[in-house]
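sry for the spam today, last one i promise. struct tokens for design, 174 residues
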């Protein structure tokens, strides 16, 4: 019987200086990418939920992402769409803050099965999933596809934080 495959996000966070964005856009880094495609700039709002840090202590981050531009995970599309709120769970598989691997889950039943052993009162149907709102902020994201496989994102939040990420989606046999 073939093993089930899951899609993992492998990411490395990097500090970036906004004044150096033109260098990235001109592909003048060392070494330069073979190909760099702009995926545009988009805004989305994330709301993170937990209860007494129970999920985060267990390597789980539960968020609702609301986006008018259909941004989900590492797939950036400029297609116009009605704002959608998507519940997502990110589960740390390995690594630390700067370099990590996450299992990203969007299936509501799988999310419930993941969360309920830690927080039995969890319900995706309740306001805020029956949990506390830890944070809510809006991010402006510039996205790029490098060498046809890496996502490069430059995020700036409405509270002044800026971070870059280089991400690769990879299949893993569960």
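last one done:
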């Amino acid at each position: 019987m073939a093993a089930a495959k899951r899609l993992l996000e492998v990411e490395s966070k990097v500090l970036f200086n906004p004044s150096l964005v033109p260098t990235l856009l001109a592909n003048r880094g060392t070494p330069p990418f073979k190909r760099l495609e702009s995926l545009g700039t988009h805004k989305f709002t994330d709301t993170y939920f937990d209860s007494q840090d129970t999920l985060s202590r267990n390597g789980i981050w539960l968020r609702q992402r609301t986006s008018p531009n259909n941004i989900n995970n590492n797939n950036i599309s400029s297609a116009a769409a009605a704002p959608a709120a998507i519940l997502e769970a990110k589960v740390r598989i390995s690594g630390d803050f700067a370099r990590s691997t996450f299992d990203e889950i969007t299936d509501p039943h799988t999310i419930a099965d993941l969360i309920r052993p830690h927080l039995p009162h969890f319900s995706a149907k309740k306001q805020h999933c029956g949990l506390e709102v830890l944070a809510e902020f809006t991010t402006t994201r510039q996205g790029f596809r490098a060498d046809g496989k890496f996502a490069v994102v430059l995020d700036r939040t409405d509270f002044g934080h800026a971070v870059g990420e280089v991400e690769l989606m990879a299949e893993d046999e569960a």
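The chain is about 10% helix and 50% strand. ok im logging off now
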